[in-house]
Structures are given as C-alpha cells and as structure tokens.
Design a protein that fits this description.
Length: 224
C-alpha cells in the first residue's frame, strides 16, 4: 500500500513543481514590492513628521495585529463589494505585499533610529540636506543593522505565503491539499510540501545567519 502511495506521489511531482513556481512567483513579487514600500514607510516612520509618522504607525499596528488570513479574505471577498474585482493571484500579491511592507517598515525604522544622533548632527553641520544625509550618512550605517533581520523576515513571509492557498492560488500548499485527496497519507504529502518550502527558505536562513555573525564580529571589534 505504501509503495502505491509513493508511486502516486511521484506521479504528482510535476504539479508540485508548478506549485513551487507559483509560491516563488507570489513571494518574489510581494517581497520586491513590499521591500520597496517598506523602506519608504520605514524612512517616513523614523522621521519627525507629526502627521505621516502616526498614520503609518497606525496602519502597521492594524496589519501586524490581525491574522493574515483575514486580510487575504478582505482583499479577495470584500473589495468586489466596492466594484474592485481581483483574481486570486493579484489579490494574493497585494495582501502579501502589504504584510511585507508593514514588517519591513518596522525593521527599517528601527535601523535608522539606531544610528547615533551625533551622526545626523555632524551631517547637518557639513551642509548636507535631508536627502543627502539619508543617502550618504544614515542609510549606509543603518543597513548593517537592517539587513540580517530583513533577510530573516523574508523567510517568514515566504512561509506566510502558504495562506494564499485559501483563496485558490495554486501554490505548493494548495497542491498538497488537492493531492492528499488522492493520496490519503498526509505525512507523505505534506512532508513533501515541507521539503519544498525548506528548499526555498534554507538559503535565506544561511544568509541571515551569516550576516548576523558578521555584524556581531564587527560590533566586537569596534568595542575592542
């Protein structure tokens, strides 16, 4: 019996690979857009604006404080009530982009705020304007702090992409749910799903760990 299930699972591999590609597509597009938006929001969140800063902070708190599945359902099922009809794929990308932007916003804002105020004062005294300070002084120093948790956040967001299977996106998780109806061995089917996610995430985990070690070593050398 087990040999039959394994054989059926092997025959389903092309569908799992298509699901893997869909997971990569949804995650990749969302992370690219979410990183760009998150950096802009993070810079504004770290600014002294009395209007933009609390507005972004409120939105980030709402998104981080509600289940991602609910956010996906709102975009996919509620927006059509207002005349905005979306297919499953763009709805998934929008939802995951928004989630990515909110978490990345907090990482970027924390990194910028970790730069000593004396650095900004020194940049101001040299005659640099706000954009020049950000480009030449603040961001180069903050990136050492931002990059390790940023890459780690990418891993979490890729795993969160499995939620979009609930609205019909044919990703790895969705293929797993459909396959388990023909191959009623959840351990085999979702074990393969877990392996495919691991294949995507493990290189990013290694990169994140390497960056954290380099950063820790740099901090130790600076203290010496």
């Amino acid at each position: 019996m087990w040999s039959f299930y394994i054989e059926q699972l092997i025959h389903s591999l092309p569908f799992f690979l298509k699901g893997l590609w869909m997971t990569i597509a949804v995650s990749g597009l969302s992370l690219l857009a979410g990183t760009a938006i998150g950096f802009i929001w993070g810079i504004l969140r770290a600014s002294r604006s009395r209007f933009v800063k609390p507005l972004i902070g409120a939105w980030v708190d709402v998104v981080r404080g509600t289940p991602f599945l609910v956010q996906v359902f709102i975009i996919f099922f509620l927006l059509p009530e207002f005349g905005i009809q979306l297919e499953a794929f763009p709805a998934a990308v929008i939802a995951l982009t928004n989630l990515a932007a909110c978490f990345i916003c907090e990482i970027v804002a924390a990194g910028i705020q970790a730069v000593p105020s004396g650095q900004m004062e020194a940049a101001t005294s040299t005659g640099l304007n706000a954009l020049q300070q950000l480009r030449y002084v603040i961001l180069p120093q903050s990136m050492r702090i931002i990059l390790p948790p940023l890459v780690g956040q990418f891993v979490l967001l890729i795993k969160d992409s499995s939620v979009v299977s609930a609205i019909g996106v044919m990703d790895v998780t969705r293929v797993g749910w459909l396959t388990v109806q023909r191959v009623p061995q959840g351990l085999l089917v979702f074990g393969l799903v877990a392996v495919l996610y691991f294949v995507i995430c493990y290189p990013l985990i290694r990169i994140s760990n390497s960056m954290e070690k380099r950063m820790s070593a740099g901090v130790t050398l600076n203290k010496m």
